[in-house]
Amino acid sequence: MASTAFELKGKRVFVAGHRGMVGSALMRRLAREQADLLTVSRSQIDLRDQAAVNAWFAAKRPQAVFLAAAKVGGIVANNTLRAEFLYDNLAIATNVIQAAHANGCEKLMFFGSSCIYPRLAPQPLREDSMLTGPLEPTNEPYAIAKIAGIKMAEAYRSQYGSDFISVMPTNLYGPGDNYHPEYSHVVAALIRRFHEAKVSGAGNVVVWGTGTPRREFLYVDDLADACIHLMKTYSSPELVNIGTGEEITIAEFALLVAAAIGFRGEIGFDTSRPDGTPRKLLDVSRLGRLGWRAQISLQEGIQLAYRAYLADSRWTARVTACPDKRAQGRSQNTRR
Ligand SMILES: NC(=O)C1=CN([C@@H]2O[C@H](COP(=O)(O)OP(=O)(O)OC[C@H]3O[C@@H](n4cnc5c(N)ncnc54)[C@H](OP(=O)(O)O)[C@@H]3O)[C@@H](O)[C@H]2O)C=CC1
Ligand SMILES: C[C@H]1O[C@H](OP(=O)(O)OP(=O)(O)OC[C@H]2O[C@@H](n3cnc4c(=O)[nH]c(N)nc43)[C@H](O)[C@@H]2O)[C@@H](O)[C@@H](O)C1=O
Predict the structure, then answer these.
(1) In a domain, 286, yes or no
(2) What pLDDT, on a 0 to 100 scale, did the predictor assign at position 330?
(3) CB under 6 Å to ligand 2: residues?
(4) CATH code for the domain of 228
(5) Tally of structural domains, the chain
(6) More exposed terminus of the chain, fewer Cβ within 10 Å: N or C?
(7) Whose CA is nearest to atom 2 of ligand 2?
(8) Burial per residue of 58-86, b for 16 or more beta-carbon CB atoms within 10 angstroms, e otherwise
(9) pLDDT recorded at residue 313
């Protein structure tokens, strides 16, 4: 596992997906690095458009790239929009990685996900368990696209010597999360649902599935800090898991969110909803050896995320107005 020093200071650094949850956390953290930050909105460049991506890279010539743009969503979004999760994520990965290579990019970080590991791989999930067994069916298209991105980064490194690295974050949450009622991840979904129940005085909140699956949750500013650390110090084809090394059942997690929000009613479980993979805990020993560990506890992170949700007028203003109509009207869009 090679370790090198890579300076961000003074470099042209492109954050792809800078308006997303991870991208905006990277932007906050990169503000301390004295880099020349490059961004481009989706309305200017759709990263699925190969010619547009090539032209933008040729004009801007970023020296470092954080590839945090992707089609992202929770278990239902992944399982419903299967074509988009495969097509968008394959296109974004191939376009950006190839353009980075062709335009002299010195370093690139590709974002995989803990869902690239086999559904029943031994826990905690080690980096070398990728491609050792069948994937979780609810997110197979997304995982296949992510595995292709990882293999691209690996291939450009072995064939051309490109310093492209891949990180595997666990389930993330925090400011900038997507609070869509159907398509969000569990943390955002439960923050919104418990908050709305508290405000409306509802006596019962329904949590999807059986409550028995176990998940690991990392606050997104911790993730961004780990990524900057690895970008500056890590250079190897081997994947690096990024997580806390701690897990919790969904039922226990729901109790934590309810307590943080001050919801005192009952919690029920809708077992017609998918559980997904039964357990997903990352082995973070490689990350630990590389000198990084998470700082923000789950309790603290939920409080911070709840505060960020309340301050996020994209969700709280319109939700009060008409939550259901909005969800139906934009059913193909996982963010709005
Ligand atoms: N969230 C999580 O729990 C986890 C996330 N990851 C990975 O981290 C990365 C970031 O995820 P996260 O921040 O949560 O996701 P978000 O959905 O919050 O952000 C994704 C970003 O990608 C942009 N984007 C999507 N499609 C396109 C496109 N076709 N052209 C241009 N830009 C596009 C979005 O643009 P716009 O703002 O216009 O919508 C948005 O800025 C992804 O690679 C994801 O797979 C990995 C593990 C867990
Ligand atoms: C980050 C990760 O995200 C996805 O995988 P996931 O871990 O299954 O993510 P999730 O957050 O949607 O669910 C976690 C657990 O929570 C339960 N759950 C309860 N109640 C709600 C609820 O209201 N919403 C959601 N979404 N889940 C709920 C749900 O049934 C499941 O058991 C993949 O897309 C994958 O591609 C990926 O990378």
Answers:
(1) yes
(2) 35
(3) 74-75, 78, 113, 115, 139, 142, 171, 184-186, 189-190, 207-209, 213, 215, 250, 273-276, 280
(4) 3.40.50.720
(5) 1
(6) N
(7) 171
(8) eeeebbbbbbbbbbbbbbbbbbbbbebbb
(9) 87
Ligand closest to the CA atom of residue 119:
2
Residue 335 lies in a domain: no
The protein residue with its alpha carbon nearest to ligand 2, atom 37, reads 115
In a domain, 4, yes or no: no
Nearest ligand atom owner, CA of 135: 2
Q: Is 11 annotated for ligand binding? A: no
> Does some domain include residue 321?
yes
114 CA closest ligand 2 atom index: 38
Q: Is residue 23 part of an annotated ligand binding site?
A: yes
Closest atom of ligand 1 to 23 CA is 13
Domain limits at 97?
12-329
How would you write the pLDDT of the chain (336 residues) with one tens digit per residue? 555 799 999 999 999 999 999 999 999 999 999 999 999 999 999 999 999 999 999 999 999 999 999 999 999 999 999 999 999 999 999 999 999 999 999 999 999 999 999 999 999 999 999 999 999 999 999 999 999 999 999 999 999 999 999 999 999 999 999 999 999 999 999 999 999 999 999 999 999 999 999 999 999 999 999 999 999 999 999 999 999 999 999 999 999 999 999 999 999 999 999 999 999 999 999 999 999 999 999 999 999 999 999 999 888 875 543 333 333 333 345 554
